[in-house]
Design brief:
This protein is α/β, with parallel strands linked by helices. It has 2 domains: 21-50 and 311-456, Aspartate Aminotransferase, domain 1 (Alpha-Beta Complex); 58-308, Aspartate Aminotransferase, domain 2, CATH 3.40.640.10. The protein is built from 16 helices and 16 strands. α7 links the parallel β5 (177-181) and β6 (211-214). The chain binds ligand F0G. Residues 49, 51, 98-100, 123, 125-126, 181, 185, 214, 216, 254, 256, 265 line the site of ligand F0G. Belongs to the beta-eliminating lyase family. GO terms for molecular function: carbon-carbon lyase activity.
Length: 457
């Protein structure tokens, strides 16, 4: 059969509240034209994030009842630890309440003034956790990854030549860690090839620099390797996952993505001394090492989710549903990052709204219009999220790309929901001449996109 169906039946449902366009105009204005400030109840289809928004399975919900809530040495911890070790192969597994808590611990220990951390592209919380210590976060993405219209199989790859040059320039002693983000969320959810991982590992070995993964979407990345990389089509996703992690010294993980749960994360590694320091900090900031920032039931749900995410029927449906939305949009001429990534479609706002300059945030304009038009909540990933101000002139230094992300929660929406999304985006595209730019009226000093307020210009 050609039709790829959702590989699950629906047992519990949650009603969607419908709003009229007039209601949405008021809601959006009251939210300062920032969808982060809209109440979830006022959203029809929520594509703000794929993080923590997964539908859990009946097995995961049963796990919630089985959760061992003992303070120390709970049975649920050992199930979690063994599931994470099975995937990462790492010696130490430290549970945290989410990804950024793992980042905070790792970079507090390794960071500091004069240090540089290198990635294909750091996610915004990861970058913030690095910069908070006074260190610099450096993105060395391959050239094709920066061109939304170029179709290439592994646009998340790290630029190996630039990596070597950067290490030579700054000195290996100033680079505590290289981190590969799989898949590359900020660059369009694009995968990284095993060949690239091997090359990066080689460079890291030459200079004695540890290699970590930001592993949030490791299963989606592995599926892309199976589909696109030579020599992997006959390997199971589980085997590919093992191979990926065999090249890493450790991971930070947000279980809110590819562990199919609503909260959780971990930090894993092989280094004895680093693990000891991380655990000590964990006790101060998160909790005892066998629960981190989580309840026993959360650990159970993660362990079960890690089993389910490697089911190839699930991954086939998952990657296909994102691709399906991408195909509908490109057929209508909507510019997106091609090919579609794993967890989201990224609209290229520069090409969608060529007449709105970065200073007027074209991505924000699309985000607002999608909400007004169809109650869809999406997120700007462009100069609102990553723009900086020139310290001397105060002028905006725009982000590399102006994107709007339509992130697809896992196992939540059906094909007809996605058809509706496509219709709303295409409708918005067809009246793009009427869209206006925005200006910021309030912003916080860090991670401003979460709380900024805007006005149309
Ligand atoms: N790394 C990547 C690549 C991420 O995408 C995220 C979260 C994190 C780290 C941090 O994890 O949220 O559990 O603290 N990304 C979400 C998103 C928020 O919407 O893309 P967290």
């Amino acid at each position: 059969m050609k039709t790829i169906i959702e590989p699950f039946k629906i047992k519990t449902v949650e009603p969607i509240r419908f709003t009229s366009k007039e209601e949405r105009e008021k809601i959006l204005k009251d939210a300062g034209y920032n969808p982060f400030l809209i109440n979830a109840e006022d959203v029809i289809i929520d594509l703000l994030t794929d993080s923590g928004t997964s539908a859990m399975s009946s097995e995961q919900w049963s796990g919630i009842m089985k959760g061992d809530e003992s303070y120390a040495g709970a049975k649920s911890f050992f199930r979690f630890e063994s599931a994470v070790k099975e995937i990462t192969g790492n010696k130490y597994v430290i549970p945290t309440h989410q990804g950024r808590a793992a980042e905070k611990i790792l970079f507090s220990i390794l960071g500091g003034e004069g240090k540089y951390f290198i990635s294909n592209t750091f996610f915004d919380t990861t970058r913030a956790n690095i910069e908070f210590t006074g260190a610099e976060a450096v993105d060395l993405l391959c050239p094709e990854g920066k061109k939304p219209e170029v179709v290439a199989p592994f646009k998340g790859n790290l630029d190996v030549e630039k990596l070597k040059a950067f290490i030579e320039e700054k000195g290996k002693e100033n680079i505590p860690l290289v981190m590969i983000t799989i898949t590359n969320n900020s660059g369009g959810g694009q995968p990284v090839s095993l060949e690239n991982i091997k090359q990066v590992r080689k460079v890291c070995d030459r200079y004695g620099i540890p290699l970590f993964f930001d592993a949030c979407r490791f299963a989606e990345n592995a599926y892309f390797i199976k589909k696109r990389e030579e020599g992997y089509s006959n390997k199971s996703v589980r085997e590919i996952v093992k191979e990926i992690f065999s090249f890493a010294d450790g991971t930070t993980m947000s279980a809110k993505k590819d562990a199919l749960v609503n909260i959780g994360g971990w930090l894993s590694m092989n280094d004895d001394n680093l693990a000891m320091q991380c655990r000590n900090l964990l006790i101060v900031t998160e909790g005892f090492p066998t629960y981190g920032g989580l309840a026993g039931r959360d650990l159970e749900a993660i362990a079960q989710g890690l089993e389910e995410v490697l089911d190839e029927n699930y991954l086939r449906y998952r990657i296909r549903s994102t691709e399906y939305l991408g195909e509908k949009l490109t057929a209508a001429g909507v510019p997106i990052i091609e090919p579609p990534g794993g967890h989201a479609i990224y609209i290229d706002a520069k090409r969608f709204l060529p007449d709105i300059p970065p200073e007027q945030y074209p991505g924000q304009s699309i985000v607002c219009e999608l909400y007004l038009e169809g109650g869809i909540r999406s997120v700007e990933i462009g100069s609102v999220m990553f723009g900086k101000y020139d310290k001397k002139t105060g002028r905006l230094i725009p982000a590399m790309m102006e994107l709007v992300r339509l992130a697809i929660p896992r196992r939540v929406y059906t094909q007809s929901h996605i058809d509706y999304v496509a219709e709303v985006v295409i409708e918005t595209f067809n009246k793009r001449d009427k869209l206006k730019g925005y200006k910021i009226t309030y912003e916080a000093p860090m991670l401003r996109h979460f709380t900024a307020r805007f006005e149309p210009v």
